[in-house]
Structures are given as C-alpha cells and as structure tokens.
Design brief:
about 260 residues, alpha/beta, two-stranded antiparallel ribbon, 10 helices, globular
Length: about 260
C-alpha cells in the first residue's frame, strides 16, 4: 500500500512539472543593442535599448553651420543622421526633428534666434554645438563664458527642464582643413578652439551635463581628406557619421530613460 501511494504521488508531481513547463513564459521587454559602425570603429560601443511601441521622441538641434550641415545634403548633416539612427533602433517610434541653426551664428545670434522662434519646451533630446564663429569672428572669449551657460540653461528649459536630455558637442577644429591651412594661423586656431572646448567641457562636467568630444575626428581632415566637405572647410557626410558613433549611445539613453 505504501509503495502504491509513493507511485501515485510521483505521478502527480510529474504532471505538475510538465504543466508548469508548458505554460507561456513571463513576457520580457525586447531590446535592441546599439553597435557603432564596425567599419570605422575598432572598439564599438554597445548599448541595449528597450523597445517601445508607437511613441514620439522629439529632438531639437541648436547650433551653427556644423548643425545645419553647410555644404552637405540635408539628410547628411548630423542631426538628420542621428534621427535616422535612432529610428533604426526602433522603427515603431517617431523622432520629429527641429533645427535652429544657421551658418555664421555666434552664441549671441543663437540666443536671439531661440528667443525669436520661441520653441515649445517639450523636447526629449536637445543637442548644442556652438562657438566656432565666436572664435572665427574674434569675439571676446568672455562673451562665450557669459553666453554659453545661458544657452545651456535655455536648452535645459526646452528639454522639459531635464538636463539629462541635453548633449553638448565640442567645436570642430577647422585648422585641419584646406581652408584652415590657407589662413596662415593654424596653431592659433587650434589653441583657441581648445580654449573654447575646455571651458564648455568643464562647465558641463561641473553641472552633470553630457559632453561629447568630436574635435579629434575633425583633426584628421588633412590626412583623411574625405572627412572634409567639398567647400574645403566643413565636415563631410562621413565625418558627421563618425560624430554619430559617439553621440548615438548618449542620445538613446537620454530619450529612453
């Protein structure tokens, strides 16, 4: 009798195990890894991004000719490339882009343009790349020290008052272009660009704001001429794609947090 009881208990235990294993697994959030372009990056950065359905993440790009994409096609400029890269990570979502940028703009003119256009304060991502025309136009460095923080404050306000939605991008170095080489003051240009970038980086670090350095990419412009646009001054589509390799992981984290 005892032996029969053990057999019955074992039988029902087996049925229970089989029943549990046949149930549907607990649903998991799918994710997509970000892998920077393996053809141009020796150590690609991989970031896992949760997959969401039919959400809208708005993106505002603030800057000057480097943001508007002087001398490259509209889809070649870095904000458009970033938008496309984000969309590739999750085609179910929408990533509307607004650009406030123009060739020749300084920190002063960008501030005025933002005030004039008065964009909504509901952006999930804001990038800021500004300062080269302050240097090029020989504006006082103290002006940048005053107005760069003002622009960051405005960017945060436009990004739902969340500084985690902000990415500041370093100023490219045009000394390493055919145009810069013809200026006769290449070392002065590079030294001053370094000064601007050092100030911006320190400000961002002190205020826990994301700062992405792309200046070293532009300093390959003389050895890798395909990094320079046909005008001999601005970055090419390829150079902007290298910018995106560094910006994309930060941008994906910002909008998916």
């Amino acid at each position: 009798m005892e032996k029969q009881l053990k057999i019955i208990v074992a039988y029902f235990l087996l049925l229970f195990i089989v029943s549990c294993s046949s149930e549907s697994p607990i649903p998991r959030t799918t994710s997509t890894p970000i892998v920077t372009n393996p053809t141009t990056t020796t150590n690609p950065v991989v970031v896992t991004v949760p997959q969401t359905q039919n959400q809208t993440f708005s993106y505002l790009a603030l800057g000057d000719s480097y943001t508007i994409g002087q001398s490259v096609c509209e889809n070649c400029r870095f904000p458009e490339q970033l938008k496309k890269s984000l969309s590739n990570l999750n085609p179910n979502n929408n990533y509307p882009l607004k650009v406030i940028a123009q060739t020749g703009w300084t920190t002063t003119t960008l501030i005025s343009a933002i005030d004039l256009q008065n964009p909504a304060s509901n952006y999930d991502l804001v990038t800021l790349l500004i300062g080269v025309n302050n240097q090029y136009q020989n504006r006082s460095f103290s002006l940048y020290e005053k107005e760069f923080p003002e622009l960051v404050t405005k960017a945060i306000a436009l990004a739902k008052e969340d500084k985690a939605n902000i990415i500041v991008i370093s100023i490219p170095d045009y000394a390493y272009t055919p145009y810069g080489q013809g200026s006769g003051i290449q070392s002065k240009i590079s030294m001053e660009i370094d000064e601007y970038n050092a100030f911006a980086k320190k400000y961002c670090t002190d205020n826990t704001i994301e700062f992405v350095n792309i200046t070293d990419i532009t300093r390959q412009g003389l050895t890798n001429t395909n990094h320079v646009a046909q005008d001999g001054l601005h970055p090419s589509e390829l150079a902007y794609s290298l910018f995106i390799e560094r910006i994309l992981p930060k941008a994906a984290i910002a909008i998916q947090k």
